[in-house]
Amino acid sequence: MDLTYGTEQYKKGRAKKMMLWFGIVSMVMMFGGLTSAYVVSSSRPDWIQDFDLPVSFYWSTLVIVLSSVSLWLAHRYISRDQLKKGGIFLVATLALAGLFVFLQFKSFGEIMSAGYFFTGSESTITTSFIYVVVLAHLAHLAGGIIVLLVLIYNHFKQRYHSGQTLGLELGATYWHFVDALWVYLFLFLYFY
Length: 192
What we know:
The protein is mainly α and 192 residues long. The protein contains five helices and no strands. The radius of gyration is 20 Å and the shape is globular.
């Protein structure tokens, strides 16, 4: 099969889709590797067995689930040409994203208040893993916040309406992926 067939636009579209899939697969592999390393390391003698997750992690999980609902509502309203309501929910999603980030850093404060640190003499392998997993997720969430800002900008430039929501759908897919990733990580840390 000749992979060089098709128009230039078709080839560029195919290449962008392939890059997106490479990105998604690499993110899944990275977090799979981190959680696998967490499981393997938990058998170490210096592993903290009675570590409790900070309360802020619970609240941040609720907030990020609400942000997915908010973005779903934004998409629903924009698809029905109720653009003002859609815009309100897009901005609400961004506000919830900011609250999520705040709660994540509050969680770091709770961990440090309990006497556990990322590095140094008070650090442990357990808390170092938690910091790395959460910071890696926050890095991907930063990408999601940029996506939200682009969605909001495009919405207020009136680029989305019924029949023209591709950009919104792609942004929402990434946001929902990041949200589902946090729920997975939270449940993993809670139950393991």
